[in-house]
Design brief:
about 110 residues; mainly beta; seven-stranded mixed beta sheet; four-stranded antiparallel beta sheet
Length: about 110
């Protein structure tokens, strides 16, 4: 069956970095646009970043542009989110999604001193 499993979240100090990973199974990964979303406490889910099938096109929310980088490895069926210069407002549960059709269970990122 279709599965998306995120990992790499945790507690980090402001200014620090984390790398999130998402491994996919159960569908043809290379056919799908992959995205990261996040939901902060008490807020709606919001778009973070997106990457097309071959990694040639990426899009980012204005709030993370220049700090986060999305990438993918089709051979390993994985998508990544490198997060640098983290801020407390980046605290959220981060989800990966395939074409907004399939979703992972999320991984918690907490940015706090």
């Amino acid at each position: 069956q279709v599965q998306l499993v995120e990992s790499g979240g945790g507690l980090v100090q402001p200014g620090g970095s984390l790398r999130l990973s998402c491994v996919a199974s159960g569908f043809t990964f290379s056919n799908y646009v992959m995205s990261w979303y996040r939901r902060a406490p008490g807020k709606e889910r919001e778009f973070v970043a997106q990457i097309n099938w071959n990694g040639g096109t990426t899009n980012y929310a204005d709030s993370v542009k220049g700090r986060f980088t999305i990438s993918r490895d089709n051979a390993r069926k994985m998508v990544f989110l490198q997060m640098n210069s983290l801020k407390p407002e980046d605290t959220a549960v981060y989800y990966c999604a395939a074409n907004s059709s399939y979703w992972g269970q999320g991984t918690q990122v907490t940015v706090s001193s």
